[in-house]
Amino acid sequence: MQRSRPWTNQPATQPSITTGSQPTVFPDPNAEYCFMSALDQNKCIDITVNADPSQCKPILYDAWGSKNQKFRFKSLGNGKYNIISLLGYCL
User: Fold this and answer.
1) pLDDT tens digits for range 55-84
2) 60-69 burial, b if ≥16 CB within 10 A, otherwise e?
3) In angstroms, how far is the first alpha carbon of the chain from the final one?
């Protein structure tokens, strides 16, 4: 699981890092990310689990590595992404 840095305004283009001969596009759609608090590295974004998916909310909670604290990026094209928890909820 990769720990992300707090997000800032990102350019519309996808930044890439070259490692050897293969460029790595960020964010990696196959990687799992945990969004840590910049003020307390023991806290991260957590999705509250509710019987009604429309009522799920992101909260700041103690980091312990559960699925509701891990996210993946899904490209929408043109440098835009959905951030989706491993539970399937979109931020």
Assistant:
1) 788 899 999 989 989 999 999 988 889 999
2) ebebeebebb
3) 18
pLDDT tens readout for residues 5-19: 443 334 334 444 445
Token reading at 9: 């305004």
Element (H, E) at 19: strand 16-19
Contact (Cβ atoms closer than 8 angstroms) between residue 46 and residue 69: yes
Q: For Cα atoms 10, 53, 12, give the angle at the middle one, nearest 5 degrees.
A: 15
What would the two tokens of residue 13 be? Answer: 């283009």
Peptide bond into 15 cis (omega under 30): no
pTM value surpassing 0.85? no
